[in-house]
Specification:
The complex is a heterodimer of chains A (about 240) and B (about 100). Chain A has helices at about 10-20, 30-40, 95-100, 120-130, 130-155, 160-170, 190-195, 200-210, 230-235, and strands at about 40-45, 50, 60-65, 70-75, 80-85, 90, 105-110, 115-120, 175, 180, 215-220, 220-225. Chain A is an alpha+beta fold and about 240 residues long. Chain B has a single domain, classed as Histidine-containing Protein, Chain: A. Chain B is built from three helices and three strands. The mean pLDDT of chain B is about 90.
Protein backbone atom coordinates (compact mmCIF):
# COMPACT_ATOMS: atom_id res chain seq x y z
CA UNK A 1 0.00 0.00 0.00
CA UNK A 2 1.22 3.50 -0.70
CA UNK A 3 -1.00 5.17 1.89
CA UNK A 4 -2.34 4.47 5.32
CA UNK A 5 -5.18 6.98 5.71
CA UNK A 6 -8.44 6.90 3.72
CA UNK A 7 -8.87 9.93 1.42
CA UNK A 8 -10.89 12.90 2.62
CA UNK A 9 -14.39 12.61 0.95
CA UNK A 10 -14.28 16.32 0.02
CA UNK A 11 -10.93 15.83 -1.65
CA UNK A 12 -12.27 12.83 -3.48
CA UNK A 13 -15.21 14.67 -5.03
CA UNK A 14 -13.02 17.62 -6.08
CA UNK A 15 -10.46 15.28 -7.62
CA UNK A 16 -13.20 13.32 -9.35
CA UNK A 17 -14.38 16.52 -11.04
CA UNK A 18 -10.80 17.42 -11.93
CA UNK A 19 -10.02 14.00 -13.40
CA UNK A 20 -13.03 14.34 -15.68
CA UNK A 21 -11.22 17.34 -17.22
CA UNK A 22 -7.83 15.66 -17.59
CA UNK A 23 -7.47 13.98 -20.95
CA UNK A 24 -6.42 10.30 -20.52
CA UNK A 25 -7.26 10.36 -16.78
CA UNK A 26 -11.02 10.51 -17.28
CA UNK A 27 -11.25 6.73 -17.67
CA UNK A 28 -9.33 5.75 -14.54
CA UNK A 29 -11.09 3.51 -12.02
CA UNK A 30 -12.56 4.63 -8.71
CA UNK A 31 -9.86 2.67 -6.92
CA UNK A 32 -7.07 4.52 -8.73
CA UNK A 33 -8.76 7.82 -8.00
CA UNK A 34 -8.94 6.97 -4.31
CA UNK A 35 -5.28 6.04 -4.25
CA UNK A 36 -4.30 9.35 -5.84
CA UNK A 37 -6.66 11.26 -3.53
CA UNK A 38 -4.95 9.65 -0.54
CA UNK A 39 -1.58 11.16 -1.43
CA UNK A 40 -2.65 14.43 -3.13
CA UNK A 41 -2.68 17.62 -1.06
CA UNK A 42 -4.55 20.80 -2.04
CA UNK A 43 -2.32 23.83 -2.48
CA UNK A 44 -3.51 27.36 -3.15
CA UNK A 45 -1.37 30.09 -4.74
CA UNK A 46 -2.13 33.78 -5.06
CA UNK A 47 -1.55 35.62 -8.33
CA UNK A 48 2.17 36.08 -8.89
CA UNK A 49 3.33 33.40 -6.48
CA UNK A 50 5.98 30.88 -7.42
CA UNK A 51 4.88 27.23 -7.52
CA UNK A 52 8.35 25.85 -8.24
CA UNK A 53 11.64 27.14 -9.59
CA UNK A 54 13.98 25.79 -12.21
CA UNK A 55 16.92 23.78 -10.95
CA UNK A 56 15.02 22.70 -7.82
CA UNK A 57 14.66 18.94 -7.20
CA UNK A 58 11.33 17.75 -8.60
CA UNK A 59 9.68 16.52 -5.43
CA UNK A 60 6.07 16.96 -6.54
CA UNK A 61 3.95 17.00 -9.64
CA UNK A 62 0.86 19.16 -9.79
CA UNK A 63 -2.69 18.83 -11.05
CA UNK A 64 -4.16 22.22 -11.91
CA UNK A 65 -7.72 22.53 -10.63
CA UNK A 66 -8.43 26.27 -11.10
CA UNK A 67 -6.74 29.27 -12.69
CA UNK A 68 -3.92 29.86 -15.16
CA UNK A 69 -0.20 29.29 -14.62
CA UNK A 70 2.82 30.19 -16.71
CA UNK A 71 5.94 28.05 -17.18
CA UNK A 72 9.10 29.91 -18.09
CA UNK A 73 12.79 29.14 -18.41
CA UNK A 74 15.93 31.21 -18.39
CA UNK A 75 18.37 30.67 -21.25
CA UNK A 76 22.11 30.32 -20.69
CA UNK A 77 22.56 33.96 -21.70
CA UNK A 78 20.11 35.22 -19.06
CA UNK A 79 17.05 35.79 -21.23
CA UNK A 80 13.78 34.50 -19.87
CA UNK A 81 11.40 32.82 -22.26
CA UNK A 82 7.80 31.80 -21.56
CA UNK A 83 7.46 28.10 -22.35
CA UNK A 84 3.84 27.24 -21.76
CA UNK A 85 0.58 28.62 -20.41
CA UNK A 86 -1.66 26.12 -18.67
CA UNK A 87 -5.25 26.14 -17.47
CA UNK A 88 -7.43 23.91 -15.29
CA UNK A 89 -7.14 20.24 -16.19
CA UNK A 90 -3.41 20.37 -16.97
CA UNK A 91 -0.65 18.46 -15.21
CA UNK A 92 2.75 20.08 -14.70
CA UNK A 93 6.05 19.18 -13.07
CA UNK A 94 5.46 15.62 -14.25
CA UNK A 95 8.25 15.41 -16.85
CA UNK A 96 10.89 16.17 -14.20
CA UNK A 97 9.28 13.69 -11.79
CA UNK A 98 9.20 10.92 -14.41
CA UNK A 99 12.76 11.61 -15.56
CA UNK A 100 14.08 11.98 -12.01
CA UNK A 101 15.67 15.36 -12.79
CA UNK A 102 15.34 18.87 -11.42
CA UNK A 103 12.49 21.08 -12.63
CA UNK A 104 13.52 22.38 -16.08
CA UNK A 105 11.50 25.59 -15.70
CA UNK A 106 9.86 27.95 -13.24
CA UNK A 107 6.07 27.93 -12.84
CA UNK A 108 4.15 30.91 -11.46
CA UNK A 109 0.46 31.53 -10.79
CA UNK A 110 -1.02 34.14 -13.12
CA UNK A 111 -4.16 34.46 -10.99
CA UNK A 112 -5.70 32.74 -7.94
CA UNK A 113 -4.75 29.12 -8.48
CA UNK A 114 -5.78 25.85 -6.86
CA UNK A 115 -3.58 22.85 -7.43
CA UNK A 116 -3.11 19.35 -6.05
CA UNK A 117 0.46 18.54 -5.19
CA UNK A 118 1.39 14.86 -5.43
CA UNK A 119 4.70 13.73 -3.91
CA UNK A 120 6.97 12.27 -6.59
CA UNK A 121 8.10 9.21 -4.63
CA UNK A 122 4.58 8.18 -3.67
CA UNK A 123 3.22 8.82 -7.13
CA UNK A 124 5.95 6.71 -8.77
CA UNK A 125 5.17 3.90 -6.31
CA UNK A 126 1.53 4.15 -7.35
CA UNK A 127 2.43 4.04 -11.05
CA UNK A 128 4.46 0.88 -10.40
CA UNK A 129 1.39 -0.79 -8.88
CA UNK A 130 -1.34 0.47 -11.16
CA UNK A 131 -1.19 -0.58 -14.82
CA UNK A 132 -4.13 1.62 -15.86
CA UNK A 133 -2.45 4.71 -14.39
CA UNK A 134 0.87 3.80 -16.02
CA UNK A 135 -0.88 3.35 -19.38
CA UNK A 136 -2.67 6.69 -19.03
CA UNK A 137 0.66 8.38 -18.39
CA UNK A 138 2.36 6.66 -21.33
CA UNK A 139 -0.45 7.79 -23.63
CA UNK A 140 -0.28 11.30 -22.25
CA UNK A 141 3.50 11.53 -22.70
CA UNK A 142 3.28 10.00 -26.18
CA UNK A 143 0.76 12.62 -27.16
CA UNK A 144 3.11 15.31 -25.94
CA UNK A 145 5.98 13.84 -27.97
CA UNK A 146 3.77 13.86 -31.07
CA UNK A 147 2.88 17.49 -30.37
CA UNK A 148 6.57 18.41 -30.21
CA UNK A 149 7.33 16.46 -33.39
CA UNK A 150 4.64 18.53 -35.10
CA UNK A 151 6.08 21.70 -33.62
CA UNK A 152 9.62 20.84 -34.79
CA UNK A 153 8.29 20.13 -38.28
CA UNK A 154 6.38 23.40 -38.25
CA UNK A 155 9.41 25.34 -37.03
CA UNK A 156 11.69 23.86 -39.66
CA UNK A 157 9.31 24.04 -42.62
CA UNK A 158 7.15 27.11 -42.06
CA UNK A 159 7.84 30.74 -41.18
CA UNK A 160 6.01 32.59 -38.39
CA UNK A 161 3.45 34.12 -40.74
CA UNK A 162 2.49 30.68 -42.06
CA UNK A 163 2.28 29.19 -38.55
CA UNK A 164 0.21 32.13 -37.38
CA UNK A 165 -2.19 31.83 -40.33
CA UNK A 166 -2.67 28.09 -39.66
CA UNK A 167 -3.18 28.57 -35.91
CA UNK A 168 -5.77 31.30 -36.46
CA UNK A 169 -7.70 29.15 -38.94
CA UNK A 170 -7.63 26.20 -36.50
CA UNK A 171 -9.17 28.29 -33.69
CA UNK A 172 -11.61 30.34 -35.73
CA UNK A 173 -15.34 30.29 -35.07
CA UNK A 174 -18.31 32.06 -36.58
CA UNK A 175 -19.79 34.94 -34.56
CA UNK A 176 -22.46 37.24 -35.94
CA UNK A 177 -21.64 36.15 -39.46
CA UNK A 178 -17.92 36.85 -39.07
CA UNK A 179 -15.05 34.41 -38.72
CA UNK A 180 -13.20 35.35 -35.55
CA UNK A 181 -10.60 34.04 -33.10
CA UNK A 182 -11.62 34.93 -29.57
CA UNK A 183 -9.16 36.22 -27.01
CA UNK A 184 -9.61 33.17 -24.78
CA UNK A 185 -7.37 31.20 -27.14
CA UNK A 186 -4.44 33.56 -26.56
CA UNK A 187 -4.82 35.51 -23.32
CA UNK A 188 -1.69 37.53 -24.03
CA UNK A 189 0.60 38.05 -27.03
CA UNK A 190 3.28 36.28 -25.02
CA UNK A 191 1.08 33.21 -24.89
CA UNK A 192 0.36 33.29 -28.58
CA UNK A 193 4.09 33.69 -29.30
CA UNK A 194 4.84 30.63 -27.16
CA UNK A 195 2.26 28.57 -29.01
CA UNK A 196 3.91 29.52 -32.28
CA UNK A 197 7.43 28.88 -31.06
CA UNK A 198 8.52 32.50 -31.44
CA UNK A 199 8.83 35.72 -29.44
CA UNK A 200 6.37 38.58 -29.07
CA UNK A 201 8.20 41.06 -31.35
CA UNK A 202 8.28 38.62 -34.26
CA UNK A 203 4.63 37.68 -33.70
CA UNK A 204 3.65 41.33 -33.62
CA UNK A 205 5.37 41.94 -36.97
CA UNK A 206 3.67 38.89 -38.51
CA UNK A 207 0.25 40.09 -37.32
CA UNK A 208 0.89 43.56 -38.76
CA UNK A 209 1.96 42.08 -42.10
CA UNK A 210 -1.18 39.92 -42.35
CA UNK A 211 -3.32 42.90 -41.30
CA UNK A 212 -1.65 45.19 -43.86
CA UNK A 213 -2.33 42.59 -46.54
CA UNK A 214 -6.04 42.71 -45.68
CA UNK A 215 -6.19 39.13 -44.38
CA UNK A 216 -7.25 39.94 -40.82
CA UNK A 217 -8.05 42.70 -38.37
CA UNK A 218 -6.77 42.73 -34.78
CA UNK A 219 -9.25 44.03 -32.22
CA UNK A 220 -9.10 44.13 -28.43
CA UNK A 221 -11.10 40.98 -27.72
CA UNK A 222 -10.78 39.12 -31.00
CA UNK A 223 -9.03 38.77 -34.33
CA UNK A 224 -11.36 38.98 -37.32
CA UNK A 225 -10.38 36.76 -40.23
CA UNK A 226 -11.28 38.87 -43.28
CA UNK A 227 -9.92 36.57 -45.98
CA UNK A 228 -9.86 32.89 -44.90
CA UNK A 229 -8.80 31.56 -48.36
CA UNK A 230 -5.98 34.11 -48.38
CA UNK A 231 -4.90 32.99 -44.90
CA UNK A 232 -5.06 29.36 -46.00
CA UNK A 233 -2.79 30.14 -48.94
CA UNK A 234 -0.39 31.97 -46.60
CA UNK A 235 -0.43 29.00 -44.21
CA UNK A 236 0.59 26.61 -46.99
CA UNK A 237 3.78 28.53 -47.73
CA UNK B 1 39.63 20.40 -15.46
CA UNK B 2 37.03 17.75 -14.79
CA UNK B 3 37.27 18.43 -11.09
CA UNK B 4 36.81 22.18 -11.73
CA UNK B 5 33.70 21.56 -13.78
CA UNK B 6 32.37 19.20 -11.16
CA UNK B 7 32.93 21.75 -8.39
CA UNK B 8 30.84 24.25 -10.31
CA UNK B 9 28.10 21.80 -11.25
CA UNK B 10 24.56 23.02 -10.62
CA UNK B 11 24.09 20.31 -8.04
CA UNK B 12 27.19 21.33 -6.09
CA UNK B 13 26.39 25.02 -6.34
CA UNK B 14 22.94 24.34 -4.88
CA UNK B 15 24.42 22.37 -1.99
CA UNK B 16 26.93 25.16 -1.28
CA UNK B 17 24.22 27.82 -1.31
CA UNK B 18 21.95 25.83 1.02
CA UNK B 19 24.89 25.34 3.41
CA UNK B 20 25.68 29.03 3.29
CA UNK B 21 22.06 29.95 4.00
CA UNK B 22 21.99 27.52 6.93
CA UNK B 23 25.14 29.10 8.37
CA UNK B 24 23.92 32.69 8.18
CA UNK B 25 21.55 33.83 10.93
CA UNK B 26 19.59 36.05 8.52
CA UNK B 27 18.64 33.16 6.25
CA UNK B 28 19.02 30.09 8.48
CA UNK B 29 15.34 29.83 9.39
CA UNK B 30 13.84 31.52 6.34
CA UNK B 31 13.02 28.20 4.67
CA UNK B 32 14.20 29.53 1.31
CA UNK B 33 13.95 27.50 -1.85
CA UNK B 34 16.96 27.27 -4.11
CA UNK B 35 17.30 26.02 -7.67
CA UNK B 36 20.38 26.20 -9.90
CA UNK B 37 20.37 25.70 -13.66
CA UNK B 38 23.29 26.52 -15.98
CA UNK B 39 25.04 28.28 -13.10
CA UNK B 40 22.13 30.67 -12.62
CA UNK B 41 20.62 30.63 -9.13
CA UNK B 42 16.85 30.87 -8.68
CA UNK B 43 15.53 31.82 -5.26
CA UNK B 44 11.97 31.62 -3.91
CA UNK B 45 10.13 31.57 -0.61
CA UNK B 46 8.52 34.09 1.70
CA UNK B 47 10.39 36.28 4.19
CA UNK B 48 9.28 38.98 6.60
CA UNK B 49 11.77 41.68 5.62
CA UNK B 50 13.34 42.98 2.44
CA UNK B 51 16.79 42.81 4.08
CA UNK B 52 16.58 39.02 4.31
CA UNK B 53 15.66 38.81 0.65
CA UNK B 54 18.63 40.99 -0.34
CA UNK B 55 20.99 39.09 1.98
CA UNK B 56 20.01 35.77 0.40
CA UNK B 57 20.79 37.01 -3.10
CA UNK B 58 24.12 38.49 -1.97
CA UNK B 59 25.13 35.28 -0.22
CA UNK B 60 24.36 33.27 -3.35
CA UNK B 61 26.16 35.66 -5.66
CA UNK B 62 29.38 35.49 -3.65
CA UNK B 63 29.82 31.80 -4.41
CA UNK B 64 32.40 31.03 -7.13
CA UNK B 65 30.75 29.52 -10.18
CA UNK B 66 27.46 31.39 -9.74
CA UNK B 67 26.78 33.28 -12.99
CA UNK B 68 23.69 35.17 -11.87
CA UNK B 69 20.85 35.27 -9.35
CA UNK B 70 17.12 35.44 -10.08
CA UNK B 71 15.47 36.60 -6.89
CA UNK B 72 11.80 35.59 -6.67
CA UNK B 73 11.65 35.69 -2.85
CA UNK B 74 8.48 37.33 -1.57
CA UNK B 75 8.98 40.14 0.95
CA UNK B 76 7.18 43.37 1.89
CA UNK B 77 8.05 45.94 -0.78
CA UNK B 78 9.67 43.41 -3.13
CA UNK B 79 8.76 43.20 -6.83
CA UNK B 80 6.41 40.47 -8.04
CA UNK B 81 8.02 37.02 -8.01
CA UNK B 82 6.31 36.35 -11.34
CA UNK B 83 7.89 39.27 -13.20
CA UNK B 84 9.91 38.62 -16.35
CA UNK B 85 13.62 38.69 -15.54
CA UNK B 86 16.59 39.43 -17.79
CA UNK B 87 20.10 39.05 -16.43
CA UNK B 88 23.08 40.90 -17.85
CA UNK B 89 25.61 38.10 -17.71
CA UNK B 90 28.30 40.15 -19.48
CA UNK B 91 29.10 41.94 -16.20
CA UNK B 92 31.59 40.26 -13.93
CA UNK B 93 29.78 41.54 -10.83
CA UNK B 94 26.24 42.39 -9.95
CA UNK B 95 24.45 39.73 -11.95
CA UNK B 96 21.31 40.06 -9.92
CA UNK B 97 18.03 40.94 -11.47
CA UNK B 98 17.70 44.15 -9.48
Amino acid sequence: MTYSLPPDPKHLSRLEALFAKIHHFDGLSRETLERIAAIARPRHFDAGQVIFIEGEPAEQLYLLERGWVKAMRMSRDGREQAMMFMEAGEIFGDIAVFSGTDYPGTVVALEEVDTWGIPAVEFMALVAQDTALATAIIRRLSERVLHYIGLVEDLSLRNVEARLANTLLQHAETRNGRLVVLRRYWTTFDEMAVRLGTVRDVLSRALKTLEADGLLKVEKQEIILLDPPGLKARGDL
Amino acid sequence: MTQGLYLYSDHNLRKTILAKFAADERTAFANLRVGVLNGIVHLAGVVTALEIRVAAAELAEEIPGVRGVVNRIEAPGAPSPARTVYLNLQNKKGNMDE
